[in-house]
Amino acid sequence: MKVSNNILEAIEKSPLVKLNKLEGVKASIYAKCEYLNPGGSAFDRAALKVLQKAAQTGRLREGMTVVIARGGSYAVSFAMACAVLKYKLMVVTDDKDGAGVVNLLSTMGAELVRVRQHEGGVRHFAIQYVHEDGHKDRLYIDEAEYDTCVASILDEIVDTLPKVDAIFVPMIHEDTTKALPHKFTGKLMRVTRPKDINYPRAPTAVPDLATQEELGCDSECIVSDEDAYAFSRWLSAHEGLMVGASSGAALKAAVEWAKYQPAETTIAVLCIDGIRNYLDHFVDNAWIKEYRLRHVELNGEKPKPNETYDPAVLKYDPTTLAGDWEKDDKGHWSKCSYTFKPYRNERPGVMGNVLDAVGNTPLVRLNTVPAMHGVEAQIFVKCEYMNSGGSIKDRIACRMVELAETAGILKPGMTIIEPTSGNTGIGLALAAAVKGYKCIIVMPEKMSKEKALAIEALGATIIRTPNDAAFDSPLSHIGVSLRLQSEIPGSIVLDQYRNMGNPMAHYEQTAEEILDAMDDKIDYVIVGTGTGGSATGIAMKIKERIPTCQIVGVDPEGSILADPTQTDTHFYEVEGVGYDFVPGVLKWNVIDIWQKSTDRESFETARALIQHEGLLVGGSTGSNAYAAIQVAKGLPKDKRIVVVAPDGVRNYLTKFLSDDWMFIRGYHL
Ligand code: PMP
């Protein structure tokens, strides 16, 4: 995959993922995972196409404000496209969107107009607002323009799968799927929600899913909200498909229909968006309980380690590597304990499960932020938030699970336990959901609620530990994991601090992708360090191919990774980076330059990337990008710098994406 000139170029074929855990269904069902687009939904394509068309026809000119009459994922996609194409955006919407979406939209620079009640609805209000007030610098974009985009997704499905008998499409707009000009000749099923209920209550008043006959004759399926939520959650927890409610509804309808179809039938289902916008909605157990949605499966009891334990279980040294990782004088891997996997240069179009959608992430050029700092050198961002679980750690989770399975130490029915700052937890919960393992994630209190919600959505159990517990304390995330492992039969800690699968995943794949996209022309790679697995794996491969390339490790103030002789550790807000010990997987001497980062610079830079580049990145990306800017200052135009973006906004919607959160800490917006 080559470098993208901006994030909009990374909107492309989304994966078709097979469902594997359905009972009573012989037909094959594939989820078209539009939520894996860079803005998180199918609307990314719509926003891009609609804005490009409006610009081509002269309706939309530089400096104008685009006005849309819809919130949620639709608005986020338009905000991303407007950030890149440099239009202003006004989002006129009702007050249904939760704090997460509102924070994201405002961080992206969109102006939000909330309409509580308006005769004729939100759309009517927006049109009036634009036309009747005679604003020449505002362009209203109608939702119906989305239809052409749905048609293009359907064509993509038909072109990718060898045969398709039916496609299920959640009806987004009244006219969607009516008169769609596409080449599909099979059954097109429109999936809707019952009209006569009060959102989001009254599940008992909802009619049942339409019967097979009804579906067959009018190709319209009605799925209740409760069924939609229940099935969305089932899909996350059992297939690792972190889909939103309309996708849950469409997949539910597809499954009910499929029960009556023969084995050779192939069904595709359009999954519009993911769980990001529903974290404070049906993804949250508290919300499900509040609305008394009794049919939604909730996670089981949390295990608690015993208060009395054998201190010997804590005898563990995370500073040593489990295995060998050494080269001889000739550069051959003389002492590597494992065999490397071959490089995969692109994602397959059709996938056996969602773990295939880990890796092959886009590498995107920065166009605005470096210039704001007077930087001339070229900076590129490796968008790891586009992995199927949302972070770079999905890669190591898959690799550690594979290695353990191959070694025979991880077997069906077992429980994976892991101490983590969250993203490895999400990755392991994802792998466990797909492969059918139980999973317990232990993470410090500091880590965001959003990460915990994603972990629970994937069916894993989460345990929180105090922030200030030192790594070797029985109360720390590491201590609690070890104690649980000693008490739960058939459990295993894969251990990202010592596991070779961690650096190997990046040596084999992440670094190769970077080299491939950059045609082996890179001067600096900037990478944050938590376990140090990313830095080590990427550095080892890149140094092999480009010995002059400098590796810059980024470490937050308050951590000792940059200078292990120092003992002063203190609290910092950025998640996922820094430690009070040097993990075994970190080969300290592969880092040429260490840069310390602060919370302020990290969050302010992350927000700048979101607002000016449309990159929906997390806080540690801000640390890395800030370090990159420092390194780049004074370098000439032809120097090329790669920055790793480990995770994305989904993890921090109510933290640094909130203006209040930033303001309270004295940071600039
Ligand atoms: N940023 C974030 C957000 C992370 O979760 C992690 C992983 N802990 C990192 C950076 C650092 O990655 P690594 O553990 O490979 O050093």
TrEMBL record:
Cofactor(s) of this protein: pyridoxal 5'-phosphate
Protein's GO biological process: cysteine biosynthetic process
Enzyme class: lyase
GO molecular function: cystathionine beta-synthase activity; pyridoxal phosphate binding
E.C. no: 4.2.1.22
InterPro entries on file: Cys_Synth/Cystath_Beta-Synth, TrpB-like_PALP, TrpB-like_PALP_sf
Pathway noted in the entry: Amino-acid biosynthesis; L-cysteine biosynthesis; L-cysteine from L-homocysteine and L-serine: step 1/2
Catalytic activity: L-homocysteine + L-serine = L,L-cystathionine + H2O
Keyword Heme: no
Database matches in CDD domains: CBS_like
Domain Tryptophan synthase beta chain-like PALP: 8-171, 355-647
UniProt keyword list: Pyridoxal phosphate
Family: Belongs to the cysteine synthase/cystathionine beta-synthase family.
The protein's assembly and partners: Monomer.
Official protein name in the record: cystathionine beta-synthase
Protein source organism: Pristionchus fissidentatus
